[in-house]
Structure formats: C-alpha cells, structure tokens
Amino acid sequence: MRSGPIIPSKQPALPPAGSQRKLWLGYTGACLLTWLLFVLAGTELQRGTWELWEAVYQATTSLWAPMLLGAAVYPVAAWLQRKSWPSAAQLACHAGAAIVFSEAWLAGNVLLAWGLFGLEHAEAMLEQNLVWRLIWGVLVYAALATGFVSVLNARQARASAVAAAQAESALARAELAAISGKLNPHFLFNTLNSLIALTRKDAKAAEQGLLRFSGMLRYVLASKREASDRVALQEEIDFVRDYLALEALRLGQRLRVEWQLDTQTLGDDIPPLTLQPLVENCILHGIAPRAEGGCISISARRDALTQGLALTVQDDGAGCDPALLEQPRPGRGIGLSALKRRFALDFEGRARLRVHTAPGQGFRVDLWIPQT
C-alpha cells in the first residue's frame, strides 16, 4: 500500500489586537468633530453679530490647547495602568495630572493672547478665566482619561482572551497528539504479536503478512507528523484493507468483511487512523472471541443534508452495555471515550461519533466528519 501526501488542516486564525494607528485616528476624528460642533454652536448663538470666521477663531483658540494636551493623557493613563498601585494611589496621580493639564491649558491660552493682543489682554484673560478654566480642565481631563482607560482595558481584555485562546488551542493540540500517539504504538504492538503467532503456524502466510505490514508501517509513520494532519479517505480505506488482510491470515474464514463505499467520498479528508481503531475494536470484541467469527460492515457516504462524510463501522457480534465501551481496557483496543475526545478536539466539536450497541445486537459506530 502506498501512502499519499498528508494534508495539514487549517487552524483558525486569532483576531489581531487594535493598533495605535486606529487609536490616534479615532482621537483625531473626535477632536475634529468637537471643533466643528463648537464652530456651528458659536455661529448659531451669535447669529447676526458674529461672522463664520469669528466662530472658527473662537473654536480654534479655545480648543487647540486641550486637543494637543489630550494626546499626553494617553501615555499617562497607560503608565498608571502598568503599575500595580492601589486604586487610591492611581486616582491621586490622575488628580495631580488633571491639575497640571488645567494649568497647561490656561497657560497656553494666556500665551496665545499675549502674542496676539499684548500683555494687558493676557492679564485680563487670566483674571477672568482662572477659576472656570481650571474646573473645565479637570472635567476635560477626566473625560479623556476615562476614554483612554476604557480603550486600554478593552485591549487588555482582548489580549487576555487571545492568550487564553492560544493556551487552550495549544493544550488541545497537545491532548490530541497524545491521543493520536496512543493509536500508533497500540496498532503496531498488536500487529507484531499477530505476526509472531503466525510464524509458528504458517511461515509463508507470515511472509505475506510482513510485506503488507511494511506498507502499513509507512502509513503509520507518515501519520505521526502532526496530530491534526489529514489524509484522503481512499488512503485510509487502503490501509484498513491491508490491516484486514493481515488479520485474515490469522482468523481465516472467521473474518468476513462487507464494503459499501460511495466513490464520491473517496477524496474526502479525514484524520489518519480514523477507521482502523474502530475496525480493530470490532475484531477484538465482536469477531475474535466467537468460534464462528463474524462480519464487519464498513460504509462511507455523502450526507445529503450537510454534505459531510458519513462513515459507519459495524459488526454482528455479541454487543454489550454501551457504558462499558467508554472504559479503556488494557490490551483490548482503544476506548471509545478517547476516540470521541480525539474528534472533539480535532474538529472543535463539529464532528460526531455515536455508538449503537446492546447485548446480543452487535456493535455499530456512526461517524460524521465535516468537509467544509
């Protein structure tokens, strides 16, 4: 059996964190909107007295200082957020920064008035605007600091969510690799034991079995590259056929197999070693223990509703209590709980594995694998 190329599965990409560029574009847009509203309000209030340019002048001279100073509020808020200080200490720092902000705003307006209209006009502005400008400065600083802190908190929450998602994804991949890793040595040890037993009975049959086993070994080794790799269903079917042929050397006519394969599904992608553990469980629990043996039915079809791949592995053995199948038995196959967990991790909960069995009613596993 030749092993085809293994197709890595796609991993969902995590969303990037917000950039500094978006933050400052938003801040610039908010400043321009505030300036425009200030101009419109000034024009409306002074209708018949003030011209448009006078409203523009008032808006510009009133807002240029807080808009420029507002850009300095962000690094202050970011610096305080990085500190592990108590809330009271951070509030005290913000209060001090608010006073500095107000004083700087007032100083900027006074210096502008001095440069444009002289010292007397600047002194008059200082006397008239000292108190209310300080109050307005504190309020504006509080609004800016609240906005920037909200942005920083949102970024921190998003970064924490991304880190948690990455950690969960890494843990899931590690667990998936561990589960998949259990399948490979288990199959190898059981097959080697069968070949050893066969050499004592039929050396020629054992030689044929070794040839098949070499091809199967290549497939198993290739499947160990990544736990989330994919192979074509046809490759897995060929692998299972070789495995069944190898088991037939040991079981002879006691092992019968029926295939029902929709040729349109043979190119579908599935995880390697999807069917073989299920077939192995059928042989170990449903066929080998019975003197008369039994029949294994394997089918693959396209789900008409979801367009997913529907697989079924069934035997006509004695069956058992479904609860017992969830418990792995040492040396007796792979527990269905491990297989369910593998598909849950591999397909993020989208794949389905359902068991149908009861004492005297055989054993059937229905597996649905998404293809989109």
Overview of this protein structure:
The chain has helices at residues 20-45, 52-82, 87-117, 119-201, 203-223, 233-251, 276-287, 322-325, 336-346, and strands at residues 7-8, 229-232, 255-261, 269-270, 294-302, 309-315, 352-357, 363-369. With 372 residues, the protein is an alpha+beta fold. The strands form 2 sheets. Strands 3-5-6-8-7 form a 5-stranded mixed β-sheet, with helices on one face. The longest helix is centred in the middle third of the chain and has 83 residues, at 119-201. Residues 1-17 have low confidence and may be disordered. InterPro entries: Bact_2-comp_sensor_kinase (IPR050640), HATPase_C_sf (IPR036890), HATPase_dom (IPR003594), His_kinase_dom (IPR005467), Sig_transdc_His_kin_internal (IPR010559). It holds the Pfam family HATPase_c. This is Histidine kinase. One of its GO terms (molecular function) is phosphorelay sensor kinase activity.
